[in-house]
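Ligand-bound model needed. xanthosine-5'-monophosphate.
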Amino acid sequence: DWTMGNVIADQVADIKQRVGTKRVICGLSGGVDSAVAAALVHEAVGDQLTCVFVDHGLLRDGEAEQVEKDYVASTGIKLKVVDAQEQFLRELAGVTDPEQKRKIVGREFIRTFEAAERELIAEAGEHGETIEFLVQGTLYPDVVESGGGTGTANIKSHHNVGGLPEDLQFSLIEPLRTLFKDEVRQVGLELGLPEAIVWRQPFPGPGLSIRIIGEVTAERLDLLRQADAIVREEMSAAGLDRSIWQCPVVLLADVRSVGVQGDGRTYGHPIVLRPVTSEDAMTADWARVPFDVLSRISTRITNEVAEVNRVVLDVTSKPPGTIEWE
Ligand code: XMP
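Prediction:
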């Protein structure tokens, strides 16, 4: 019968049989899907699996550390971390168009991943055979959506850092293909992954690059990271993590408004809060976050984040507004 325990047992047996003694690679994004898929494959083939985590510098505060430390500590998975922050910033310099940003992040991610794969093969020395299998955290809704031709794929080029194009010449292992998100979380819990990973809210592959409206720079990323950390802290403290689907925090980097802070006039940037409720991200409603929580967030951001003098709330449903601003 259909329990997550059985799903795990079946998948593990299946993967063992398919992979034999070959090597397997998996791109970790920090998100739930790739984390659970990798943990499942690790259960089946142990050290034949190596995960690659590309730190593109577009992550939120603490996310890279979470993958580097917590995930490895709880799974024992072999992990190769590639620091590609400078490369991504360089490629994104001067770019303001949302689709352009998405394409650049996608392209650079694949370049970095392929280089990491070549390194892994070289490191294995004379025993270095090509890596035959690639793990993908594809879920059932992904399968349906890409085959179903709903047309939504044309709205934005979704770039999932957990996923790679198939022309990379791997055989794919997709152990979550029959599962919905809540089932994936169940599998993750049963495999002993930390709750902080299992209950993570969705986060887009292009990361903070599409939450800075305007050019992406190191300084702006820094500023947005601080504001985002405050929002997550206050949302968690208010116990809203599971009732809210996600809350993008957006920096309007090219907009300035006049404010008064401390002793004088300021001319700073607005931060937009975009808390939404949703079942599947296809449609969404703006979340009715309690006023006192919003108030704490606003006070803290304007006090603690230099150059931000205004916090605004996005009260648009999807449609017409998408969840992310770009
Ligand atoms: P939108 O903005 O299209 O977002 O309403 C719907 C959901 O998808 C996430 N999102 C992405 N996820 N790669 C991803 O893996 C992407 O390029 C991407 N763009 C948006 C978004 O955070 C929301 O959960």
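The radius of gyration is 21 Å.
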